[in-house]
Hints:
This protein has one helix spanning 34-38; strands spanning 22-29, 60-67, 77-80. The chain is mostly beta strands.
Amino acid sequence: xxxxxxxxxxxxxxxxxxxxxxxLRNLYxxxxxxxxxxxxxxxxxxxxxxxxxxxxxxATVARVVQAGxxxxxxxxxxxxxxxxxxx
Length: 87
């Protein structure tokens, strides 16, 4: 069973949403059954295992905090598919 020492809390500065980018606040994260298999290094499945120390992926529902892309407005809700995020 997981214990507190299995997790890491990382504080980082919040970036600005420059041109062509959105700054989003995630509200909901989709956790699907296939993700359990991705938590085992060397698991043989159709999806790559999660990298140790990297946050798990997943589709999200998010609120736009800052919009650097035409057609998106602050406060708007968006659905973000798994793998669409970048740092």
